[in-house]
From TrEMBL:
Cofactor: binding comment: Binds 1 Fe cation per subunit.
Naturally occurring in which organism (per UniProt): Flavobacterium gawalongense
Protein name according to UniProt: Pirin family protein
Claim: Metal-binding is one of the keywords in the record: yes
Domain Quercetin 2,3-dioxygenase C-terminal cupin: 160-246
Lineage of origin: Bacteria, Pseudomonadati, Bacteroidota, Flavobacteriia, Flavobacteriales
Keywords: Iron, Metal-binding
Amino acid sequence: MENKDSTKEEVITNYILHKANTRGHANHGWLESYHTFSFANYHNPERMNFGVLRVLNDDRVNQGMGFGKHPHDDMEIISIPLEGDLEHQDSMGNTTVIKEGDIQVMSAGTGIFHSEYNKNKDQLVKFLQIWIYPNQKNVTPRYDQITLDLKDRHNKLQQILSPNPEDAGVWIHQDAWFHIGKLDNGFSTSYQLKKAGNGIYAFVLKGDFTIGTIALNERDGLGIWDTNEITITANSADAEILLMEVPMKL
C-alpha cells in the first residue's frame, strides 16, 4: 500500500451507495442508533444485507445505560468501540471492558446471552455493532478481544479481522477481512481483495474520501462487487475508514 497517483480515474461500475442521512434511525433516549441495514423496527427490503454483512449499527449509549442480557445464535458479532468504554458480560463467563483501539468478536454458534453497558457515568460510549453470517452453523460459542496499536493505521490499512486465527486481528467463521485506515489529507492507497468473488463495503468513520470517482462523507457506506482492487483517497485531515471484505453469496 503506497501513495498512488490520484490523477488516474478509476471508474467503479458495480456498487451501491448508502448516504449517512438515508440510514434507519432509532432514538430510545438512552440509546441512539443508526442502521445501515434493516434492524429491529427499521425494515427496508432494499437494505437487508451486503453479501454476508447483515448488520452495521452505529450506536451511541448514554452514561451508565446499556443493553440488558439478550440471546444470539449462529452469527458472528463484531464490536468496534469509537469513543468511551463499553462493559461486556456473557453466559461464557466473560466480564470485560472494551474501548477505542479494541476489537471484540463473538461467535454466537449454538447460543449465547450477553449484555453491554456504558461503563462510565460521565461520558457517552459510541461503537459499531456488526453482524456477519457465518460459513458454518452450530459452532461452539467463542469470545475474543484484542487491543491494537492505533499508530499502525496511520496512512495504511491495519488489518483487524480475518478468517485465520494466526493472522493479525481477531478471527471469525467466515472468509472476511476487515481493515481500518487513518489517512492524511490527499493520501491515496489501494486495497486488493483477498478472495475472488468477494465484495467490499467501505464505511467512513471520520472525514471525507474518494473511492475511485465516488465521493464519500462521514458515515457514508459504499458496497462494491465484481472488482479485484479499489483505490482510496482521503480528502480531509485525519480521515478514517473501515473496509469490510465479505463473501457476496449467503
